[in-house]
Design brief:
By secondary structure, this protein is α+β, with helices and mostly antiparallel strands. The protein contains 5 helices and 3 strands, in the order ααβαββαα. A 3-stranded antiparallel beta sheet has the order 1-3-2. The model has no long low-confidence stretch (mean pLDDT 90).
Amino acid sequence: MPRSTRRRPAPTHPAAEDIDLYDVLHALSDPTRMTIVRVLRAEPERACGSFPVDVAPSTLSHHFKVLRESGVISQREEANRRFSALRTVDLERRFPGLLDTVLAALARNGGDA
């Protein structure tokens, strides 16, 4: 049976000026999403299926969607893979020090998201 030639739509991202603090805080309130953010803080970009999380692929897709739609990450497609990166510059411009503060608090509390 031939494979479908339809491509999934490219991921959409909010403009930097439209990133909302409440959406960002909501996105950062989940342990799995914080693991993704911590990994991306250490690496500039990573393939979506390569994060050290123990959730179903559909659940992981949901977490990426929440992070992307809140403006915390950007995603790009390359062939059949999707790569994620933190929107560090945009977040720092909108909410100076927020990401560093949240990550530092997480580390002080044992690093478990």
